[in-house]
Structure formats: C-alpha cells, structure tokens
Amino acid sequence: MPQLTWLGDAEAKRAARRVPYRLLETQSVHGDPDADNWLIQGDNLEALKSLLPFCAGRVKCIFIDPPYNTKSAFEHYDDNLEHSQWLSMMYPRLELLRDLLAEDGSIWVTIDDNEGHYLKVVMDDVFGRGNFIATGIWQKLHARNNSAQHLSDDHDFIIAFARNLKIWRPNKVSRSYASDADFWNPDDDPRGLWRRSDLTAAKPYSDGHYEVTGPHGDIFVPRKNRYWSLSRETFAALEKDDRIWWGKTGRTFPFRKRFQSELGDLVPTTVWLNTDVGNNREAKQEVAKLFGRDDIFSTPKPERLARHVLHIATNPGDLVLDSFLGSATTAAVAHKMGRRWIGIEMGEHARTHCLPRLLKVIDGEPGGISKAVDWNGGGGFRFLTLGPPVFEPDGRINPAVRFPTLAGYLWFLETGTPWTTHDATPSPLLGLHDDTAVVLLYNGILGDSRTDGGNVLTSALWRDLEPLAAGRARRWIIYGEAALMPETRRRELNIQFKQIPYDIQMR
Ligand SMILES: C[S@@+](CC[C@H](N)C(=O)[O-])C[C@H]1O[C@@H](n2cnc3c(N)ncnc32)[C@H](O)[C@@H]1O
After folding, report:
1. Which member of 28, 169, 364, 380 has the greatest number of CB atoms within 10 A?
2. Which domains does the chain have, with CATH numbers?
3. Signal sequence span per UniProt (predicted)?
4. Which residues line ligand 1 (CB under 6 A)?
C-alpha cells in the first residue's frame, strides 16, 4: 500500500508507546458526584494514554476539532506548526484515539484545505482504508467572502472513520431539518407539510394505463412509456382521503401528497448546510453569550454542528470524547443530549472557559441547542489534571499510587480491556478475564494481620483468595511484593506470580 512519509515519521509512530502513563488527579467535583463526566486539563497525548486503562474500547464517538495549521496565532492557542510537525503531532494522538474507540464506535474530525488531504491519508493508515465512512462538507460561512483573492472558502471537511465499518451504523436524521425545502402546504391540509410524489413509473404494470378524471372533468393517462404505479382502487382510496394533488388550478396531471409527519427519518448526507447545522458566526455568538464579547474564544464550533455528529453517531448514555476541547462545545452538547463525555484541553482556557461553560450547562444554560433538546440542567462532572507518571523510569511505582489506580493499569496490561469495577468494594481480585483470575496485593488490601500488610502471597493468604473466584478460575495471575508460597505449590495451583515492580512492563 502506498505510504505517506515525512521528516520524523518514525519517531511519531513510536511516540504513543513511549509516552508515560500519568496519574489523573481530581481537582474538583461539580454537580452530581456520581456523574461519570471528565474535564481534563493537559496535553492530550499524555491524557489519552492515561485514559487507556479505564476507557480503552469504550468510547462510542470521538469528535475533534484540532488546530488546522492555518499559520495563525489565536488568542488562546497557536496554530502554526511546520507541516511535518503537524503530522507528527496528529499521528500518535490518532493511534491512542483509535485504541479508545468501541468496536461499534466512530471518529469525526473537522479540518480544512491546509491539512485535510494529508489527514485523510494519515487516518487511512491509523484506522484502515476499509473503515473510512465519508468526508462531510460543512458550509461554515453564513455568506460568501467576497473579498477572497481567489475563491471564497465556504466549507470545512469532516472526515469520519469507523473503528469497524462492518458493524458501524449511523442513526438516521429527522426530516424536519434535513429537507424542509421540499415540503409545502398550499392547500392548508390539516395534516401539515407535504411534498409531491410521482404516481407513475417506467416499469410496466398490468393495470398501468387506466384513465383518471380530475376535479374539473379532465382525463389523464400516463405519458408514453410510463405507467401508473398503483391500482385504480388504491388511486380512488387516496383521492377520497385528499391525498391526490391536481395542481393549484385543479387541472394539472395528478401527484401523490406525501406528508412529512408520515415519512420516516433519512440517511444522513455528506453535505451539511449552515441552515441545518449552524455556521462560524453562530458559534461566535453562542460563546459571546457565555463569556461576554471581550473574552471570546476565537475558533468555536456551533452547538448544532456537534449535535448533528452526536445524533448520527451516538445514543443516550454513550461515551463521547473530544481531546481538542477548545471552549467545550462538544462536552456541553454531549451533556445536554444525555451522553457521557470526556473533554481534554491543554490551554488555560480549560479553567477560564471550559469549566465555567460546563458549570452553566449543569445549571440549565438556555443557549445553543438547549431549547431543541429541552435541556433544563442537571448532572455533573469532575475536573482533573495530569499528575506524575504512575511508573518511574526504572519501573518502580510512584509511591503516590493507590490501589485502584494500579489495579486499573495492571488489569489493562493483562487483558487489554478497561478496568470497570473500580467503584465496587475494593477486593484483591480485580476480575476474571476468560478463565484467568487477576489479583493485586498492594497497599495492604487484605488488611494488616498478614505478612507485610497483605502484599505478600502466602499459603494462609491463598485460603482467603481462592474463594473469591468461587471455582470460576482455571488460571491465576497474582501481583504482589513477594511470594512466600513455594513455587511447586504455585505450579500445582496454576498461579503465575508477578513481582511488583519488576514484572510490570507497561506497553
Ligand atoms: C480549534 S480549537 C477547538 C475548538 C472547539 N471545537 C470549540 O468548539 O470550541 C483547538 C483546541 O485544541 C487545543 N489543543 C491543541 N493542541 C492540544 C494538545 N496537544 N492537547 C490538548 N489540547 C490541545 C487548543 O488549545 C485549542 O483550544
């Protein structure tokens, strides 16, 4: 397969593996303390890596709006990387994002002509060409830029990939904003808006050439090589129910009236009009209402755009991730739509813009999509920052690491899946993966009465451990500080003992 190469590509392809796992430290909790929404301040390369043990394979939709490399310096962030550096910045982040996606999940990336075509090729490499969904065209301007030197650049791209296109399916979109222009109601039909639909087809139909009589006695038959596509009886029934349109004069060739309210939803298209999903001006107005005109975030997206993506790609309760959060549009919209979310932003505006915006959302902020989705407030989130690495360069565990954190990392290391039972009562048995029990003896999890506070595998301790898996485990992986149980006995019991920290090698 042809490959894109750039200066530093080999290093970029190693970066995701090399970046350390850092502790995620909760700074504050807002609203409902049980809500599982996270606003993280920090570089997303490190933040995404640190999320892997808890969220790998769980994110239903990633919607990101990375710097486009427009060679500009915006007030809140810089958008001026050398072309190769931009590719090197994106590559490892996309790899980590891919690992966080659920098998039926998808990623949507906004971009423009500066890097869009290169981004598509990089995403082919990371996600696989076969998982490409489409490139959407979003009409971002409200009116053409008539002072443009060449062409008015009216659109951005939205490049979408599935984790696995064979199983990914979009939600359909409502007609109310997908094709309003086709519908009208010139006869004031109480059933509401309708559109004309042809009553004839090219396919021959046995009873396809009967005569019909209009309201003023005019006789109509299909033109040459066309046939009625319905029987006389059906035609008569439709006419009785006022579902045939003979034109404003009542004398033109008949059409069927198809009511908007009776038609199902539509497959989403790749052209997203500003009238349907908002534009840049609307986005600026939204953030101006939130933060005031003097402290406006320079490059926000409109809430309707994020809503469109999340509507197509998620259902209520699904987990949404935006790792280039900006002014927190994706998180705000996900929250209002009843999705769970994680937002990552490295700039100081994580505190000055994202945090206050999301506080307003839980208080029922009425702007953006609030009316459309009937948002009145509620829920909550936590604000986190990145702490020190979990593992020191020589492999030792950072002493600040507590049991649940290490448990999450080791479970992920052993199984490649996230550890989701961290809210349950702490138990040294982290879980069963297939028929393997994974156990962690750390921080004296079994109490102080045992050797070295319960961090050492002894025969006495085994008597407490074994019942935890209640006969379900055929194999055991046990992490601890030391093993005093003889090796022959461990072999008999099918126990693989791993010594902390020496046997921990994070990938
Ligand atoms: C185009 S803006 C996103 C705007 C956002 N969609 C909105 O509606 O407000 C890109 C954001 O990505 C952030 N960013 C850039 N590099 C980052 C990184 N390595 N880690 C985290 N955030 C980053 C920038 O600070 C900026 O806020």
Report:
1. 380
2. 26-100+110-173+267-387 (3.40.50.150), 176-262 (no CATH), 397-499 (no CATH)
3. none
4. 43-44, 65-67, 76-77, 297, 299-301, 324, 326-327, 329, 344-347
Cα 355 to ligand 1 centre (Å): 14
Torsion of CA 263, 269, 274, 280, to 10 degrees: 140
Q: Which atom of ligand 1 is nearest to the CA of 287?
A: 9
CA distances 467 to 79, 428, 448, 457, Å, are 57, 12, 20, 15
Give me the residue label for tokens 């427009």: 70
CA of 370 to the centre of ligand 1 (A): 23
Q: What is the pLDDT along the chain (507 residues), one digit of tens a residue?
A: 788 999 999 999 999 999 998 988 889 999 998 898 999 999 999 999 999 988 999 999 999 999 999 888 888 888 888 999 999 999 999 999 999 999 999 999 999 999 999 999 999 999 999 999 999 999 999 999 999 999 999 999 999 999 999 999 999 998 765 556 678 999 999 999 899 999 999 887 767 889 999 999 999 999 988 999 999 999 999 999 999 999 999 999 999 999 988 888 889 999 999 999 999 999 999 999 998 877 788 899 999 999 999 999 999 999 999 999 999 999 999 999 999 999 999 999 999 999 999 999 999 999 999 999 999 999 999 999 999 898 877 777 888 888 888 888 889 888 888 887 665 567 899 999 999 999 999 876 655 444 555 688 988 889 989 999 888 999 999 998 889 999 999 999 999 999 886 766 554
The angle that helices 44-55 and 9-18 make with each other, rounded to 10 degrees, is 50
Query: Strands 22-31 and 319-322: what pairing?
Result: unpaired
HEC string of 358-400? HHHHHCCCCCCCCCCCCCCCCCEEEEEEEEEECECCCCCECCC
3-state secondary structure at position 415: helix
Alpha carbon distance 419, 56 (integer Å): 9
- What separation in Å is there between the alpha carbon of 41 and the centre of ligand 1? 11
Q: Which candidate, 230, 229, 220, places its Cα nearest to that of 201?
A: 229
Give the nearest ligand 1 atom to 93 CA: 19
